[in-house]
Amino acid sequence: MSLTQNSVQTMFSMNASGDNPSFAPTVQVIHLKKIDNKGGGGEERWKVILSDGKYFLSGMCATQLNNLVHTGVIALNSILRVNDFIVNTMGSGQKIVIVLGADQMGAN
């Protein structure tokens, strides 16, 4: 299973996966961390760092993907095909990717 070369740069140049529906990069999860809710309520949130083997990006998993985290599909070092995402620009100018849909590629 090979990672999609230069996919991080391609994702950052897009606003969302809808810009190019055929683009579904294969990336590796190199960091996964539960984020504390400041208000104490609501659904849990997961910060993720994804790598294409050369570059990496910071992002968040949409709450509808929490089940994939709990079942181990999204886990440290897992290989994912990201088939739906949006790119948000934070107030600081930093871009992050919100992963809306992903599939496991191979066994973790």
Query: Which outline best applies?
Result: globular
Distance between the termini: 12 Å
> What characterizes the major β-sheet?
5 strands, mixed, barrel
Task: Determine the structural class based on helices, strands and strand pairing.
Answer: mainly beta
Strand content: 35-45%
| Cα-based radius of gyration, to the nearest Å | 13 Å
Q: What's the order of the H and E elements?
A: HEEEHEE
pLDDT below 50 for ≥5 consecutive residues: which ranges? none
Secondary structure elements and their pairing?
Layout: H1 7-12, E1 26-35, E2 45-51, E3 56-61, H2 66-70, E4 79-89, E5 95-104
Parallel strand pairs: 3-5
Antiparallel strand pairs: 1-2, 1-4, 2-3, 4-5
In short:
The chain has 2 helices and 5 strands. The chain has 108 residues and is mainly beta.
Overview of this protein structure:
This protein has 108 residues and is mostly beta strands. 10% of the residues lie in helices and 41% in strands. It contains two helices and five strands; from the N terminus they run H-E-E-E-H-E-E. The chain has helices at 7-12, 66-70; strands at residues 26-35, 45-51, 56-61, 79-89, 95-104. A five-stranded mixed barrel has the order 1-2-3-5-4. A hairpin with a 4-residue loop joins strand 2 (45-51) and strand 3 (56-61). The protein is globular, with a radius of gyration of 13 Å. The model has no long low-confidence stretch (mean pLDDT 93).
